[in-house]
C-alpha cells in the first residue's frame, strides 16, 4: 500500500520528468519500488534511456532490470503511437514468437520494443526461467531472434498479452512444477483466470496460493473482493477477519468487514457491524464519512429488529446522535451551502429505509434513488430521470437504472446534492427526457397495486423421484419438488446437496429397523431421478431412552475414521453392561479401568472395520450391526456387554464428486438381474464360430 508521502514523491518526480527536468531513472526506480502501474510512462522514459548508449552503459547491471521493466510495460500498453512509420502487422506465428507486431517510434533496428527487450534478455540470460530458456536462434530482418521452447515468465506474459490463454496456462504450470513457491507465477494464474471471467477458477487458485503464503495481505483482500462480487458474503467476511487479525490498525479492513456484516443482516451481525464501524471511526480520528453513515444505518436497523425484546440497546440513541452530529459538522465544513434543514431531515428520514449497502452495490443503491424520487415527487409536468453508471466503474451488477417520474427542477436539486463533495465518490451520470423511448414498463401497464391473478404455486414446479443407493432394498424413497428450470436458474442445481432423512424400516421393508434414521444427500440428477448417497445415520430418541436402565453402566466412544474411498466419518458407539452368567448380584457396574479398556477396544474395532472398506460396504455393516456384534465378542473377557450399537454416524469430509463411483453405488452390476430360465430340452445349441461384438 502506497503511503501519502510516497505518492507525493512519485507525483513530483513524474511532473518533473514530464516537463523535461530530468530524473527519468529515479522515477522508474520509484515506480518499480512502489509497484504502481504507470506503463505508458515507463515505456516512454525507459525506451529513451535504452536508446541512449551513454545512459544505458551508465546503468551497469541495472540495465537488464530496465529491459524487463520496459518489456512488461510495452505488453501492458498493447498498441503504441507510430512515429515516421505506418502501423505494420507482421506474422511470426510460424517461428513461435507471436502473431502480430506493431512497430512504434521507439523501435530498435526496426522491430517492436518488447520483442527487442525480451530478445536482449534471452541472449544475456539463456538459461533463465525468468525470461525463457534459449533453444535456437533464427534470423528476422537481419536480426538474431533468440527463441525459447521452455517458456519463462516473460514468455508466459507475452502469451497472456496476445490472448493465448491455453498456452500461457501451460507455461505457468510448467514453471510451478520447477518452483512451486514462485509467488509471481501463482498470482499470474489468478490474473489469467480473472481475465477470462472465470471467477470460480480465480478463487480456486487464490485459495491454493494462500495455503502456501498465508501472510499475503493483498491476496486475502483480492479474494474478499471476488467473494463480494459473487455475493458470497460469509466467505468474504472470513477473508476480512484474517486481514484484521494480521493488520488490526488498517481502518479500510474494519470498514469493509462492517459493510459485509451489514449486508448479511440479522441482529447479531448488525451489532458487530456497528462495532467495526466505530473502530473505523476511532482509527481514522472521526474522519470517515462512510463509517458515520454506517453507524446511523446499523442503529436504525437494530432499533427495528429489537422492538419488543426485553433487553434494550442503551447505546444506540447516543451513537446515532453522535454520528449525526459528526455528519452535520462534516457537511458544514465541505458543503455548507447544501446542508439545509429539509435536506438534513430528508437524509435522516431515508436512513432507516436503506436495506443494504447502497453506496457499495448499485443494485441496492437504486432503491435509495427511488426513495429520493418519491420524496421529491412534483405536481407539475414530470419528466423521466434516467441514471446510469459512468464508464470505467468496476460494477457488473447493472448498467442502467431508471427512477420514478419527477420534475426536472427537483431532480436537478437532488443530483447536485448527491454530487457534492461528501457524495462525490458516486460514479453517476444522468439525463432527462419525455420517457417515451425508455419508459418504465410497469408504469405503462396501469396503476400500481392493481389486483393480481391468483397463481398456482405448483404450476412452475416439477416432481423428481429420489433414488436410494443399491445397498438398500427399496430404491424409490419418495418424491421432491423443485422450481422448474428458468433462465439461469437450473432445477438440477437446486436439487443437488439436498439432504433427505428416511427411516431404515422404509428402506429395508423391515419394522425391526424403525429406530434407525438414514440421511441421504442428493449428489446428481439424471432425468427425473435424483441420485443420493449415504450422508449419516442416527437413532430415534425413544430408542435411546428405552436402552437406559438401572443397575448397569453406559459406555460410549467415538472415533474419526477414513474409508478407502477417502470419506472421513465420525462414528459414535454406545454399549451397556450386563450381568455375568450365574451372577447373583443385582447390579452390573463396570470399574473405571474396565471402561477404559472397553473404550479402547471399541475404537480399535471401529477403525479396523471402517478403514478396510469403502463407504458402500461400511453402510452394509451398519444395517445388521456387524460392528456392534464384533465389539460385544471382543469385550467378553473384560466385562459382558449388551445392546452394542453404532448409534450415530456423521460425514465430516467427502471426496471430490465422481459420477462413475456414484453410478456404481446405484447399480449393482456384480449380480445377474432377472430370473434365470432353463433351456428347453428339445432346443439344441447352435454350433459355429463365435463372433465378438463390440470388441
UniProtKB/TrEMBL annotation:
Keywords: Cytoplasm, Repeat, Ribonucleoprotein, Ribosomal protein, TPR repeat. Its main location: cytoplasm. GO terms for biological process: translation. One of its GO terms (cellular component) is cytosolic small ribosomal subunit. It comes from the Eukaryota. Pfam families: Ribosomal_S3Ae, TPR_EMC2. PROSITE patterns: RIBOSOMAL_S3AE (PS01191). GO terms for molecular function: structural constituent of ribosome. Residues 147-260 form the EMC2 TPR-like domain. It is found in: Cytoplasm. InterPro entries: EMC2-like, Ribosomal_eS1, Ribosomal_eS1_CS, Ribosomal_eS1_euk, TPR-like_helical_dom_sf, TPR_EMC2. HAMAP family: Ribosomal_eS1_euk. Component of the small ribosomal subunit. Mature ribosomes consist of a small (40S) and a large (60S) subunit. The 40S subunit contains about 33 different proteins and 1 molecule of RNA (18S). The 60S subunit contains about 49 different proteins and 3 molecules of RNA (25S, 5.8S and 5S). Belongs to the eukaryotic ribosomal protein eS1 family. This is Small ribosomal subunit protein eS1. It comes from Salix brachista.
